[in-house]
Every structure is written in structure tokens, then in C-alpha cells.
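Lab notebook, bench 4. We co-purified these components, and the gel suggests they stay together. Before we commit to crystallization screens, I want a quick structural picture of the whole thing.
Request: model the full complex, all chains together.
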Amino acid sequence: MSFKATTTRMLAAVVLVCGAAAANAQEAPESLKIYFDTGSASVRADQTGTLDQAARLFRDGNPIVMIVAGGADTVGSPDANLTLSVTRAEAVARGLSDRGIPAARLQVLGRGVSELPVPTPDEVAEEANRVVEITWR
Amino acid sequence: MTRPRAGLLAAAMLAALGSAVAAETGQQAFAREDYAAAAGLWRDEAAGGSAGAAFGLGMLNDLGLGLPRDPAKALRWYLEAAQAGFAEAQFNVGVMLDAGAGVPRDVAAAAVWYGRAAANSHARARYNLGLLYAAGDGLPQNADLAAYWLGLAGATLPAATERRAQLAPVRDDRRSLAPPTLLAGALVAGGAAPRAEMVWTAPPASPDARFLVEVARLPARGEASGDVLVSTVTDASADLAALPRSGDYAWRVSRVDAAAARYAAAAWRPLSGDGAAAAMPAGRVTLRINPGDRRAARFARELGASFFAVGLWVRIEDADEPATATSVRYAFREDEALAQGVAEALPVLTAQDAAFAADLGAAPGQVIVTLVGGPEYADIDESRL
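Here is the predicted assembly.
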């Protein structure tokens, strides 16, 4: 699914947007995922390697935008999960910025529970859904 | 304001605009997102030797801006700028090799380009180099070097400071005084100030050990010696050295433990061109003579020629304090045999006279000879000595 199609349908909170030249996708991997503990928005120590990997794919001078999209599992209310997903995405964006990626190159989104990678009923603590996905365009 | 004056003003503005457009650079065209114009201008500028323009062309090919996306071509342009010493391009070459973009993945090669960019103060390159050293990825694992590079990167990248705090300390039984491996040395002659960019690696050594980076000018044809121009002590594994002018240079890095009077040196390597291996110094002899000691001065010249014939570089200088006897001294245990050979070459000394002197201030591979007097020469007026 293309990013544009996604934006129109999602319960999105765009925190940081930068207008940069459109560019094609980067090389594989097409996305990197960072997982969170239930209810938590802090990046776990075992996930920082993925932040490093993302930073090591980002070249200098490129007007490429890294899209940092947060998600949540279905434990709790949809509103609370939307907020949580944004907070998670912001934490990942901060991690990338701490690694020298210019903040202007980061677009931060919260998807709440609107696009679960693994669909579940309400109140299911599915780790695969507690994820921030980093993609490029 | 009257009409004619407004007209004049408009004409002046148009003229100014016209000259601005005529002088547009690739960077300006890129900034207004005219990628076709940027490509044309950058090609001209790159042909004229602009590393920034080559970097820009790399970016257009990398991202497919105004022309088809072509990672392999992007890498070639980045490389051209990188070889000219352009830090952002060196970093991007490292990233592409690290990620396998436009080229098969090669972390060892990526590490070398991160190293050159790190020497040029590129913060993210320093961070990535620190990560590679921490993980032993593409380079032998070395927490000391990881800490060094993450420490520098931490000045601007908070993640580097965090990662540095998590490094496991090096176990003492993993430390050894091994000669550094020279990974890349290049003479970057961009602009008026040529410089050497050097990258090396080494396993962890004693906390007292530091790197000594030396850059030497090789002897020109007919010259009686080369000269060590740069001696830098550092904890880094990549460094720059400003050089006075283009020429044939060689470099090496030693691991020096001054407290233990030991060192381990890499072999000298040409920095550029094809500096002949035969021209590399086998050692250095400094001949010190008392001012006015004409016999010693003449003997020093003769000795110098014969030392140079066996590959030793010679420097003749005035003794800073009056010497009373001829002596041969060295400051590192590794130089004992060299010093003994030098002592044996002197008529009044034997190999046993070569004296170890830790506080001498001599460099690795350097023997310091103090000459007092010399053979009798018929053409020197002895009464004046």
C-alpha cells in the first residue's frame, strides 16, 4: 500500500511535516520496525540497534523523508491508543534525531489502532501491533 | 517617484537579475528544484574539479531527480567527490557500501570511508565508525576505539553518548602492543592546502599506548635524505595532516607505549603516486655536533652518506648543549639492534656502546648520535680546532 493511500484513510496525527522534494524509495530493507512494551512509549534497549540500522541507511544531503508511523495494540480506548501511538512515533523520531538525522527529514504519524499489522479483537495485547514503522520516500 | 526613474530602477533590477541568472550555480538550480538545470551546471562544475558538484550529481542519481534513478552511477559520483576529500560524499559512500546500495555490501570498505569522513569531523560518520568498532563489524572489535569515536560524535549526537556508556570495557588479556594495520592513506590536493587523509586500525593496547602518526617527504632524486614532516600523537584511528606542498610522501602509524619504552610500527607506505619501496626509511639517524667542531661536521656528512646508502635517513643538527664525548642513544627497546649497528659504524665505538635512554625524546626508529671530533683531515687546519 502506498504511503499516500495510507494517509487519506488513517486516523492520523501529523506532528512534524517537512516539504521536501519527492524521491523514490530507498534500497531494501523497505521498512524497519521498533517494538514496544504494553502501554509504554519508551524505546527498549533491545530495539536501539534498529534505530542505528535506520540511521546507517540515511545518506547525507538527501531530501528523503523518513516516515515514522506509530501504532498500538487494542488494550485500552482507541483515543488513548492514538495518543500512545503518536508518543511512540515521537520517541522513535527523537532517537533518529539523536543519531543526527535532521528533524526536518522526519514525518511523524500516529495510526492508533486504525491499521493493525495483526488484526485482533479489543483488549488483546498483541506485540506486533505495538510497533513504530520507519519507511522512506 | 517619476515614471522615468521607476523605469530606470526596473531596468537596473532586471540587469541585476540577468547577471544573477547567468551566474547561477548547480546548487542554486537545485535549491529551486530545477533538477535538469542543476545536472547540467553540476556537470560543468564537476569537470572543472568541483567536489561539491560531483556530490550533487551523486545525489541526483541517488534519488532519481531529473534523471533516472541509478544507484551505481550515484556511487561513482559520490566516490569522485569522496576521493577529493568531500566529507559528506565520503560518508555517503560509506553508507552505500554499508547498506549494499548500488554495490554489493562491504562493511570493511564502508569502515574506511567512515574513517576518512570521521577524520574530516563528520559527526554521523564518527558515530557509525564507533558502532562498527563496538560490534566488530567490518573492523576488529575494539571498545577503546569505539569509545573514542562515540565520544567525539557525542558532542552533537546524544545517542552516541548513550551508546558509549554501554560499552563493555576491554579485558586486559585482550590488550596487546600490535602494529597498526594501515587501511587507507590518500593525498587530497584540493585547493591550495594539500592534506593527507589516513585511516588505520589496531587491536586494543595498554591504556598507556597511543598512536603516533608520521608523514614523511620521500627524498627527491639526488637528495641525501627524506624528512619526517608530521609526527602526531593521537588516540584516533583516522587523522588528517596538512602538508606543505605536493610531492612524494609516505606515512605510517606506530603504537607507542612510552611508559614501557616499547612500540610496534606499521611499515611505511606511499601516500600517493608510486613512491618506491626502496625510498622508505629503514630508520633515522640524527647526528648532533657541537657548533664549530669542523672535524665532526665533516665526519657527519660522510657518515650521513654511508647511512643513507643503507636506507637510513640522516639529519645533521647542532647539539643543544655541549657534548664531551661521542655517543649513540635510543629510546625504545625495539631500536637496540639499529643503534648497535650505528655504533659499530663509528670508529671509536662498539655495539656495546649503544645506550638506552628512555627520556631521550627520540622517535620510534630514531637513533641519536652525538659526534665529538672525527678523523684527522689533512685539509683542516688543526690549529684552529
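The radius of gyration of chain A is 14 Å. Worth comparing against the SEC data before the next meeting. Chain A touches chain B at residues 21, 23-24, 26-27, 48, 51-52, 55-64, 95, 98-100 (CB under 8 Å).
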